[in-house]
Amino acid sequence: MTFSIAARCARTGQLGIGIATSSPAVGSRCVHVSRNGAVAYQSVPDPRLGAFALQRIDAGFWPQRVIDEVIANDAWAGRRQIGIVDAAGRIAGFTGAQNVPWAGHLPGAEHIAQGNVLAGPEVLEAMSEAFVAQAGDDLAQRLLRAIEAGRDAGGQVEGQTSAALLVYGRDTFALCDLRVDVSEEPIAELRRVFDWYEPLIPYYARRADEPDVVRYKQYLSEQGHARTFGRPVPVTRGPRAGTR
What we know:
alpha+beta; globular; about 30% helix
């Protein structure tokens, strides 16, 4: 009930996943990324197995061996779907025979697209083509454009309810970790959030090493990015008894 793309950027070495599905909160179950690899574990996912697969990638095992190991010890492997890319750009995919059609995976250069309950194989083809066509952009932008292309090619026959975007660079923290947990058009909402947030991606990476950098609002202003922020709300509840 999901379509996703796991990929590595040959230019920057960044790794990440873009994903969308008909159910809520897909980013909490199916997306596993580190600076060593990216694992999309979907369809009827067991998050524990997704986390284990990423641990094996972190330990240096190749993607195909990781998939072989995971499905060999999973009684429900026929209902799983997995796409993996590692820091060397190696890829592997698996679509269990019990996935709801249309289901499949499509490997490409340093990326792999996969999905189930799709309008057809053209969804994955559109995702792969969009990813390759934007080779000069940063990885997060390419992943988002890929799932936009998948949606525009038909996406899931049930529609989409949630979407997520997760990208890692050389550090142990995410460069970009954005989610839309419930929406009638989650990919469009993810696009809105990403476009708002994108200028801050290098800022927060820098601030990890330079805590005295200017505040984010000043940074955005200096970079010429106008943004609207939340405003204080009226206090409608007084302090609890005994807290003064």
